[in-house]
Amino acid sequence: MRTLPAYLQGISRVVVDATVANSVLAQRVRERLGNLPWEVLAEDQFLASGLAREDILYLKNYKGRFLRFCPGTSHYQCCGYQIIHIGENCPLRCSYCILQAYFQDRVLKVWANQDDLWRELDQAFSAHPGRRFRVGTGEFTDSLVLEPLTGYSRDLVEFLANYPQVCLELKSKVVDLSWMDKVKDPRQVLPAWSMNAPFIVEHEEEGQRATLEERLDAAKTCAQAGFRVCLHFDPIIYFPGWQEGYAQTIALIFEYLRPQDIAYLSLGSFRHMPDLRRCIQENFPDSTYIYGEFITGLDGKQRLLRPLRVEQFQFLVTALRQGGLDKQLYFCMESDEVWRSVLGRTPKDFGGLYRYLMDRAFEK
Amino acid sequence: MNVPDLPNISVPAPQLFLCSAQEVDGQGEWLFWSKAPSPILEQSIKDRGQLVPVVVDASGSRPVLIAGAARLQVLSALNRDVLCLDVGAQSLWDKGCMYLASNSQEIVDDSRLVFALRFFHALDAGRLGEVFSALGLDPRSRQARLALSWLKLPRVWDELLAMGHLSLPCAVGLCSFDPDDLQTLFPFFSTWSWSRSGANNVLTWIKEIMIRDRKKAAAVLEALGGQEILDTQLSPKDAMTTLSAAIWSMRFPHWSAMEEKFSTAAKAIVNKTKWQLSHKDQFETGFVELTTRVANGSELQQAITDLVALGSHPMWDELFEEKD
Ligand code: SF4
User: Fold this and answer.
1) CB A218 within 8 A of CB A175
2) If residue B277 lies in a helix (H) or strand (E), which one and from where to where?
3) Count of domains in chain B?
4) B144 within domain boundaries
């Protein structure tokens, strides 16, 4: 049996819905976690509320929609990508993680009825053979964090090989490249890693996440194998010493990657709803960045005062441009005013962010 | 003690008797809602005498008042005897309950709730359910939960609640401070009477500055000149406004600097006109808004003339970050 990465060693039991207990995915998990207690839930049974813990892996027969639009936000430019929903929650502990506020519990849920997923995706993609899709799995979980147990991304890239009009982004804070050998056309997959200042990675990304160097090294491996990668500076956090911190990370990026290795790079300032703020206060009392100068944005979310956001964006963009990145840069959920004052262009200038990123994702 | 004639009943029953008002001990801690008698009660007792007996425990060397403090006070001032109903020896808890029952017609505002809970909580926190039901209050209600939070504060804060210097919802903010920080904050709330939102804002901002800068409340208030504001001759309203503004500036230094810069430029631009200039959306957009009101044609003409003139004011450059 392979040794599990440290971030999965906290799992102490597996619960599975009876209807998916014999699924390929459940069998695979069973092989890999055979030593753990295994509990099957009959069709009318639910996970007891006392079991709402992160040490439980729940293989579920998911009844909802698998393919969805990213919720985006009003008044700000959204990138319009689509989510393939494969599960919920994450064993890592980033203080700023939105999932704390999204979900009531921390149970690691995986949708094990993959046949339903394949059916829904096939319907969606086949219904519009000429339409391109930019999809990702890193919205309600980390795309790769459960990969050693589920092999989900491996299955997904294999499935998507039949749909060349689909480009899949795998966004993560860990290093797992076990899916790579299943990819037929590297242009169809965009491995992506979150970037931040070393101080933030150190203090605000608890759990056994990969270091920046490990993430970039994995990105380099992908680039050398013919993939283009994505990087995401999100959330950018305002803290004492942020300039040096972000400068260091940007310098590191160019030690590992060439501009042409990067399909796109997003920049997003830390934004939050009151619920998330409460979670951070309770779960991460040492995280003081939430006491920054936040105002209520046009979408009702708290965001850093605009000149401070712009100051940070300008700093990062200048450094990234010096390294040779420009066309790859875009903002996550920002106003035209911020786009103009930092990048000197707005999404309208290049036909909308959705189209632009689609073009970049499919650029050959 | 003068014992009046009572009906001859065989079961032990409360006994009525008369005694001098000075003889009754009216200092019990269960008299938690005691207040000065109303002029109406004073007049009524003067004109018609005591119509309802006070409740006492006469089992000891002198009668101990359980309920009826206002009547006792009036009769004592009039130097009259007081008609007492002796209910015999009672536990502290039961004395409190009898006091509550005999004041059941009183309106239980936030401070009365806290005074009552403070008394019973010290005796047996596990039995507070009985008190809530005697008060007709759902223990899960927001008022009940806030009152229970308030009990975590030192008792001196109860008086500020009774004086209306603070309101019950401030319990949440106040409880987030350590005892020594609370002591630092106390003069700022004992001196002035705060609105609920004013107090909550100030408490929230101070707390957030403390966490952000890893400082104690004393250091924060010293840095923003809290004591000087406390000592000023300003009216309470102006002093509170000054203190709130100072705390806000410390909590949001960039934002407050932007507000100040904007207001200076805006004042200069619309000076001596009826136009008003404001910004929108907490600077989230670069838009500014010019407004005025006119009542007739000549005011309209004047407004247009002023608008044309202020359009070329050099201070606009201070406001617009996007240049033409
Ligand atoms: S890696 Fe992503 S999903 Fe996991 S805790 Fe961090 S932010 Fe949340």
Assistant:
1) yes
2) strand B276-279
3) 3
4) no
Does B2 have pLDDT greater than 50? no
The domain locations on chain A are 68-102+114-361
Q: Pick the residue of A337, A341, A342, A346 with the most B CBs within 10 A to test the interface with B by mutation.
A: A337
Q: Which of A291, A305, A341 minimises the CB distance to B255?
A: A305
B212 contacts in chain A (CB < 8 Å) = 288, 291
Domain region containing B91: 15-106
Contacts of B270 (CB under 8 A, 6+ apart): B276, B277, B290, B310
Is A296's CB within 8 Å of B208's CB? no
Does the Cβ of A90 fall within 6 Å of ligand 1?
yes
Cis amide bond preceding A235, omega within 30: yes
User: Is there a domain that residue B115 lies in?
Assistant: no
CB A222 within 8 A of CB A177: yes
**Do the beta carbons of residue B168 and residue B200 sit within 8 Å?**
no
B265 backbone dihedrals φ, ψ, rounded to 5°: -65, -45
Do A307 and B283 lie within an 8 Å CB cutoff? yes
Are A298 and B285 in contact (CB < 8 Å)? yes
Number of H helices, E strands in chain B: 16, 6
Instruction: Give CA angle at A109 (A107, A111), nearest 5°.
Output: 165
Report pLDDT for B10: 45
Query: Atom 7 in ligand 1: which residue has the minimum CA distance?
Result: A97
Q: Identify all chain A residues contacting B251, using CB atoms and an 8 Å cutoff.
A: 291
Query: Helix A114-127 vs helix A152-160: angle between axes, to the nearest 10 degrees?
Result: 30
Say what the pLDDT of residue A79 is: 62
Q: How far is A288 from chain B (nearest CA, A)?
A: 5
> B206 and B275 share a domain?
no
Q: Does A322 touch chain B (CB under 8 A)?
A: no
Q: What is the CATH number of domain A68-102+114-361?
A: 3.80.30.30
From ligand 1's centre to the CA of A271, what distance in Å? 15
> Separation of A67 CA from ligand 1 center, angstroms?
20
Strands, sheet with B54-57, edge to edge from the N-terminal-most edge strand: B15-20, B81-86, B54-57, B64-67
Examine the domain organization and report whether B237 and B268 are in the same domain.
Answer: no
Residue A72 has pLDDT above 70, yes or no: no
pLDDT recorded at residue A45: 85
Q: What pLDDT band is residue B105 in, cutting at 50, 70 and 90?
A: confident
Is residue B226 domain-resident?
yes
Residue A99 CB–ligand 1 contact under 6 Å = yes
Single-letter residue type at B219:
A
Min Cα separation B186/chain A (Å): 24
Report CA(A38)–ligand 1 centroid distance (Å). 26
The answer, yes or no, to whether residue A78 has pLDDT greater than 80, is no
Report pLDDT digits (tens) over A313-327: 999 999 999 999 999
Taking the model in full, what pTM does it have? 0.87
Tell me: the pLDDT tens digits for A128-146? 888 889 999 988 999 999 9
Domain boundary among B227, B251, B275: B251
